[in-house]
Design goal:
With about 60 residues, the protein is mainly α. Helix content is about 55%, strand content about 5%. It is built from four helices and two strands, in the order βααααβ. The chain is globular and about 30 Å long.
Length: about 60
């Protein structure tokens, strides 16, 4: 199963939030952010933390093919 985080990157641009700031706000590691940058799987916990910070649903930030 392929994963894409393009929706997340667009949302960050729309909200003017840098990746490093999101890591800080959501208390996720830069390692997890790097995995997402390579469209690799990350923990569900990571996605939930991001969604809480961005006030969105998981399908707003992730596409699975």
């Amino acid at each position: 199963m392929a994963v894409s985080y393009k929706k997340l990157w667009k949302l960050l641009i729309d909200k003017d939030i840098k990746k490093s700031k999101l890591c800080e706000m959501a208390e996720i590691t830069t390692n997890e952010m790097a995995k997402m940058g390579k469209d690799e799987m990350v923990k569900m916990e990571t996605l939930v933390k991001i969604c809480k910070i961005l006030d969105c649903k998981i399908d707003d930030i992730v596409d699975m093919n």
